[in-house]
Write a structure and sequence with these properties.
The protein is an alpha/beta fold. It has a single domain, classed as Alpha/Beta hydrolase fold, catalytic domain (Rossmann fold). 28% of the residues lie in helices and 27% in strands. Strand 12, helix 8 and strand 13 form a beta-alpha-beta unit. Helix 3 packs across helix 5.
Length: 292
């Protein structure tokens, strides 16, 4: 499908702390109308092109929204620091499902959820690339980001699109320049290769009880449970990037649990400085920080 900027989008302008927000519909799938909010810098010349933070909220694929206060605040921060912030909605495929997304959710259903989340994310990315001129986006500098379920969707979209996407041609023009993951994991880190690896920021607690820090079952389900599915967490992703000599910023919080999925506002200056140095200036930096 070719995206048409003026006829395909539904547009609204909101105001959050004096920050203009423009809303577009990027896809309609069944009963789901999927939208994204664009937070643009206040002062923009027509010739300006900006890097992008493309953000996917968390919520276990059952709750959450693109305009929740923290997700909106993050995109607002991005817009105030030389980026265009984009926060997306996506299909919450586990909403109202009795088996949830834990150990009673069958492995096959989990993998299908990951797949469809990755596709939704790629569709949102394709939309902003298709409409880059009107949105004043630099398509060579798209930072993919998300927290918890959103981080899982993002990581799988960036590193496993060949596995999950049904039509790769649809995303030929989608190229990611970096990743920002808060308590995320990937289905298989072996899909991270020299050809697709990009500078990556990882925040994770070592005792995360839902999304594994290391290689472990999702939700730490027992092998006999329907939802037993091994995932590779931030520790494995960072190890893979180190081997490939790709930049990463790995913030480890000892003994912390899934609360590290919250957006680390106190560290955002460091996160954006990392992308400034690695994505904008092509430096190679590998940093590991351990907090207790």
């Amino acid at each position: 499908m070719k995206y048409i900027f003026l006829s395909f989008c539904m547009l609204s302008v909101l105001c959050l702390n004096a920050q203009a927000v423009t809303t577009y519909t990027y896809s309609v799938k069944g009963g789901d109308t999927l939208k994204l909010d664009v937070y643009a810098p206040k002062k923009m010349k027509k010739s300006d092109k900006f890097p992008v933070l493309l953000w996917m909220h968390g919520g276990g694929f059952s709750i959450g929204a693109r305009d929740f206060i923290d997700d909106a605040k993050l995109c607002e921060y991005a817009a105030k620091n030389g980026y265009i912030g984009v926060s997306i909605s996506y299909r919450l495929l586990r909403k109202g499902i009795s088996t949830g997304f834990g150990c009673e959710c069958a492995k096959e259903d989990k993998l299908e959820t990951f797949k469809q989340a990755a596709i939704d994310y790629l569709d949102a990315a394709a939309f902003i690339v298709e409409n880059a001129e009107a949105l004043q986006i630099d398509t060579t500098k798209i930072i993919a980001g998300g927290s918890s379920a959103g981080a899982e969707g993002t990581l799988n979209a960036v590193y496993m699109r060949e596995h999950f996407a049904d039509s790769l041609n649809k995303y030929n023009n989608v190229k990611f320049a970096g990743v920002f993951s808060c308590a995320g994991a990937i289905v298989n880190a072996d899909y991270i290769t020299q050809s697709n690896a990009v500078p990556t920021v990882l925040f994770h607690g070592t005792k995360d009880q839902l999304v594994p820090f290391d290689t472990a079952p999702h939700h730490f389900c027992e092998p006999e449970k329907p939802g037993y599915l091994m995932l590779d967490g931030s520790k494995i992703i960072a190890k893979k990037l180190e081997e490939l000599e790709i930049s990463y910023y790995f913030n480890i919080v000892k003994e912390a649990m899934h609360e590290i999925s919250t957006i680390p506002f106190e560290d955002l200056d460091k996160v954006f400085n990392f992308f400034e140095r690695t994505v904008m200036n092509n430096e190679v930096i590998q940093t590991k920080i351990i907090k207790r």
